[in-house]
Amino acid sequence: MTVYDYLKSLKMDFTSMARLFGIITNDNSYENLTFENYITKSRKMEMPKRFMIPQKNLLDLMTTINKMVKHESCPNNLRNRFYNQKKTIIRYMLRDGRVSDIYGQGDYYALIIDGKYSFHQPRPFLNHLNFEVKGEQEYKSDGISIPFDEKTYTDFQVLYYIYTGQFRQSREGYPKCPRWAKKSKKEANS
Q: To which H or E segment does residue 89 belong?
């Protein structure tokens, strides 16, 4: 099975497929791959046998990574990427009604996801979203940091791209493949 066929089977939007391709191939040069190059390269490459989707919970990993990015061993670019990804996940989960018990805490919101995962998000990151704040509290930071682990971070990245790609594909109707992309003969006939 080609990488293209494997990723297509996950029913994600095209952007997430291209990003996940870079992780699967373990090649950072594919991180900002154009769609056209992604199609060309992924259709020629067989799916590596070593790649497996982590059998972990996205929010468990997000909790762990949230502690890792506070440690001095975490590279700044990965810290910044995580915070943007965390914001996206929380926004999508707000839309899905999975976020509850939202409290204002100074410049932040304290949120509970799925009744057990607690996160803070700067107030401006959640602007223009429809939610109800239960009240104001004093800001409480857990202040816990743990050393950075690249494997755990990569596991989170895989689950992040799958979650957000499937969310966008199913909820927002992004096309699986841009119109301009050349389709294979098999796809054109289906």
A: helix 76-95
> In angstroms, rounded to a whole number, what is the distance separating the alpha carbons of residues 5 and 39?
10
For 74, half-sphere exposure in the C-beta direction (CA atoms, 13 angstrom radius) is 25
Tell me the per-residue pLDDT of 60-80, one tens digit each, with 9 for 90 and over. Answer: 999 999 999 999 999 999 999
DSSP characters for 10-48? TT--HHHHHHHHHHHTT-GGGTT--HHHHHHHHHHSBPP
Residue 103: in which H helix or E strand, if any?
strand 99-105
Alpha-carbon distance 120 to 129, whole Å?
16
CB contact set of 91 (below 8 Å; sequence gap of 6+)? 125, 126, 129
Residue 154: how many CA atoms within 13 Å on its side-chain side? Answer: 15
Average pLDDT, rounded, for the chain:
85
Question: CA 179 to CA 163: how far, in whole Å?
Answer: 23
pLDDT greater than 70 at residue 186: no
